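pipeline stage [seq->struct] | target=Glycosyl hydrolase family 32 N-terminal domain-containing protein | organism=Georgenia daeguensis | residues=322
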Amino acid sequence: MSNVLSDAWTWDMWFADDGDRYHAFYLKASRALGDPDRRHFYVTVGHAVSQDLHTWHEVADALIASDQPAFDDFTTWTGSIVKDADGMWRMFYTGTSRAEKAIVQRVGVATSADLYTWTKAGTEALCEADPRWYEKFDGSSWPDEAWRDPWVFPDGDEWHMLVTARAKDGNPDDRGVIGHATSPDLETWTVQPPLSQPGAGFGHLEVPQVATVDGLHVLVFSSLHGELTRTRREAGERGGVWSVPVDSPTGPYEITGATRLTDESLYAGRLLQDRDGAWWLFAFNHVDGDGAFIGSLSDPLPVGWDANGRLRVTDGRFDHLE
């Protein structure tokens, strides 16, 4: 997908399939900013379409920050898309506000009849971290209040939302959990206890997704070296896109068994099944061999299960990973 844009950094992405075209939505920011770390606060949600997952054509951006005051009047970040019973597309996304200096993250929703024109539901968020189970920003434990990257999917008569979150207890560098909320109708959401436990070795587990690949359930998430616990870093572990087999899409998830799908050259991985049934990993090109930020979307990488029951990239690119 690196052929889509040359004048913008692009990173976290999510997908929808309308039966004719695949739609990629992704975070983007102008390279004229100079410093890639600034991209998070000058971000829009870009949109490209494809008929084969390889050749993409950019169309009009999908979302921008709202006018003040609103929960998302500073940034609109990573999300996911589902289609409801009435045929309306719903994009659940992360928002932050200028009043809170983008520190507190919340989840909101926008709707579309055609995946091209989106209307936000309003100025209020759908849900945020509940202090009964989740860490709230205190200025010391972590640089933000994590409640982002919503991944929404159905299970029976109920909808589930996975989010990047942090538990309220435990060592500050070891509180990363998969947050959870449920809804009967995609309108009203109730925050639930996390679907994983802190203490698995991660400060956060970004861009979570569950999928059923060739009949087996798997959770994927991403975490870099700097967000691993001190114990993992001192043991020489690195980051990237991670996966772990799970018994049920709705958890619980045993994160301690996670292994890396990629190294840190790729990040924010997403699994996508094409219409022929094959599974692919997309991510964004994160850093080059010298550690410099790249910021472009990858081409699809084939994935499958190995003899040890681990999800792997099957073209050999990451065979060097443990």
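stage status: PASS
auto-comment: The chain has one domain: 79-313. Helices lie at 230-234.
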